[in-house]
Amino acid sequence: MLYRAVRPLLFALDPESAQSLSLSSLDVLTRVGAASVFACSVPRLPVRALGLDFPNPVGLAAGLDKDGEHIDGLAALGFGFLEVGAVTPRAQPGNPEPRVFRLPQAEALINRLGFNSRGVDAFVENIRRSRPGAIVGVNIGRNADTANERAHEDYIACLRKVYPHAAFVTANVSSPNTKNLRELQRADDLDGFLAALAAERERLAVQHGRRVPLAVKVSPDLDDAGIEALADRIAARDIDAVIATNTTVSRQGVEHLPASREQGGLSGAPLKARATAVVAKLRRALPSRVAIIGVGGIASAADAREKLDAGANLVQLYTALVYRGPELVGRIVRGLAAGAWR
Predict the structure, then answer these.
(1) What is the CATH number of the domain that holds 222?
(2) Residue 238: φ, ψ to 5°
């Protein structure tokens, strides 16, 4: 209820400033033990996936906390897990502002952030300062000036640094806001890339005495042949999970809105059906041992249940938090618990 009162004030700011203010306020409330002001009770709804035990299946999608600065506050909202990042090896500013745009009529966002990151060393220090307890995955990417031929070097550099601190690590090869990044999803390019990443993971598993699950985040804009080829390579390289999906370059359903002309990836309600279809196709194409994390347009327990019924093991939120507020986490978990979705 409180979020309804403050949302007009936040929407009077540009989206990036509003997000920064929201996260800073959440940090303050968490430090004084009052984060529950913006949250509501979350029941336990345990799920086992990726070899991990999650207190509930509702996670935070990557992109909200790119530098791992707000882990404690976000964990206090009741998420079953968090994914922070994307982080790049070297600091980079991302694309020029303005680069995030609201489409309130559609409960959607368009962003062209472009992996703005303070770099992996600063990122790791932030994670180290967070309190233990939350399940935290790390989303990794390449620097904008790294050619795809050498992309695996950037991902491996990040993997080495975050490995001791991550519950799982996601290779983001599907952001539409880094030039040519999505080409890494093509079967031939993906196979060599995943082979290099998996080999480094096995080396790190021996070094650290624990095997951290690897995930790949994929685009909602792949055709059926692309999904099948990608699933084949993921299974062959012993990847543990797929996150489906990233944002879309399609503007279907929002063409009439002025902000739809902005370049970038579209998220939120208009992405829901497209993302769910990709989850279903991946579930049919992948062995059951490969988990699927469904993300895209989830704004209610019914939306989450659609993803789970389509074959997802876990789900993630982001854009709906902007429109519905942090109480959404508890409402979705309670709704799933009441519906006995498993």
Answers:
(1) 3.20.20.70
(2) 60, 40
Whole-angstrom Cα distance, residue 332 to residue 307?
A: 13
175 is catalytic: yes
* DSSP character at residue 28: H
Number of structural domains, the chain?
1
Query: pLDDT of 56-82, one tens digit each?
Result: 999 999 999 999 999 999 999 999 999
How far apart CA 84 and CA 101 sit, in angstroms, is 21
Q: Mapping DSSP to helix (H, G, I), strand (E, B) and coil, where does residue 110 land?
A: strand
- CA separation for the pair 314, 243 (Å, rounded): 9
Over the stretch 255-277, which tens digit does the pLDDT of each residue have? 999 999 999 999 999 999 999 99
Catalytic residue among 22, 130, 174, 175: 175
What is the residue-wise DSSP string for 198-226? HHHHHHHHHHHTS---EEEEE-TT--HHH
- Which DSSP letter does residue 96 get? P
* Domain hosting residue 15, numbered range: 2-339
Strand partners, 294: 244, 315
Listed residue (289, 251, 285) closest to 268, CA to CA: 251
Question: How many residues are there in the chain?
Answer: 342
SS3 253: coil
